[in-house]
C-alpha cells in the first residue's frame, strides 16, 4: 500500500536558523511527491513537487525539498526560517496504484518558528 | 479571481439535518475532489470526479453524496448529519495527469450539534 510518514508532530526552530521537516514514503513504481502548507483556518497551499529530474526541487517562499530514492525520503528545507513560516506542513504522494491519482497525505508536521 | 472557492465557509447545524457544500473552480481543470480533515488535522480523500464522472469513492457513508453538474462544479450533500461528521471539508481540483498539482479551496468547517 502507498503511504507517507511524517515522523515529527512538531518542529521548533529559531528565526534565521535552517529548518527541515521530514517525510518518508512507500510507493510501488515512481513516486510523485508534494508538499503543502496550511496556515491557521486556511486551505492547503501548494509549495513544491517532485515528479522527475533533479533531486533538489525549489518551491514557493524559499522552500526546497530533496528527493532521496535510496532513503525513500522527501524532506522539506529552508536555509533561514521566518516567524511567518509557522504553519502546518503536509507531505503527500500521488497514489497511482489505485489508478485514480488520489493524494495520500502524511499526518502533518507543525512548524513553530520563534523570534 | 479565486481559483477554487467553497460555500459556505462555516456551517453549524443540528444532528439529523441535511446540508450541502458547494465548490467551484475557474482553473479549467477536469478533475475535482472532496477531502475531509478531522479534528487531528488528518486529511483523507472522499470522492473524485473527472469530467463529471465519479472515479474515486472511498469508504464513506452513503449519507454523503457528491454531485457534479459540470466539470467546474462539485457539490457535496450530506443527509442525516451526525456528530462525527463535524470536520473541515476541502474541495480541490487538478488537470488529470500523473504529475499535476491539486489546488485546494479554503475549506468549509462543519459543526454538528
Question: What keyword list fits this structure?
Answer:
heterodimer; A: 115 residues; six-stranded mixed sheet; 12 strands; 52% strand; B: 113 residues; Immunoglobulin-like; four-stranded antiparallel sheet
Distance between the terminal alpha carbons of chain A, to the nearest Å?
41 Å
Structure class of chain A: mainly beta
Radius of gyration of chain B: 13 Å
> What is the CATH homologous superfamily assignment of chain A?
Immunoglobulins
Major sheet description of chain B: 7 strands, mixed
Secondary structure: number of strands of chain A: 12
What's the CATH H-level homologous superfamily of chain B? Immunoglobulins
The CATH topology of chain B is given as Immunoglobulin-like
The CATH architecture category of chain A equals Sandwich
Number of domains of chain A: 1
- Global shape of chain B: globular
User: What global shape of chain A is seen?
Assistant: globular
Which segments of chain B are poorly predicted (pLDDT under 50) over 5 or more consecutive residues? none
- Overall residue-averaged pLDDT value of chain A: 93
What is the total domain count of chain B? 1
Indicate the low-confidence ranges of chain A by residue numbers: none
The oligomeric state is heterodimer
What sequence of helices (H) and strands (E) makes up the elements of chain A? Answer: EEEEEEEEEEEE
Strand percentage of chain B lies at over 45%
Roughly how many Å is the radius of gyration of chain A? 14 Å
What would your notes on this structure say?
- The complex is a heterodimer of chains A (115) and B (113).
- In chain A, 0% of the residues lie in helices and 52% in strands.
- Chain A is mainly beta and 115 residues long.
- Chain A has one domain: Immunoglobulins (Immunoglobulin-like, Sandwich).
- In chain A, the strands form three sheets. In chain A, strands 2, 5, 6, 10, 11 and 12 form a six-stranded mixed beta sheet that branches. A four-stranded antiparallel beta sheet of chain A has the order 3-9-8-7, with no helix packed on it.
- In chain A, strand 8 and strand 9 form a beta hairpin.
- Chain A is globular and about 45 Å long.
- Chain A starts with a strand and ends with a strand.
- Chain B has one domain (4-95, 107-111): Immunoglobulins (Immunoglobulin-like, Sandwich), CATH 2.60.40.
- The termini of chain B are far apart.
- In chain B, the strands form two sheets. In chain B, strands 2, 4, 5, 6, 9, 10 and 11 form a seven-stranded mixed beta sheet that branches. A four-stranded antiparallel beta sheet of chain B has the order 1-3-8-7, with no helix packed on it.
- The A-B interface holds A 32, 34, 36, 38, 42-46, 49, 51-52, 88, 90, 94, 96, 98, 100-105, 107-108 and B 4, 31, 33, 40-45, 48, 55-56, 90, 92, 94, 96, 98-99, 101-107.
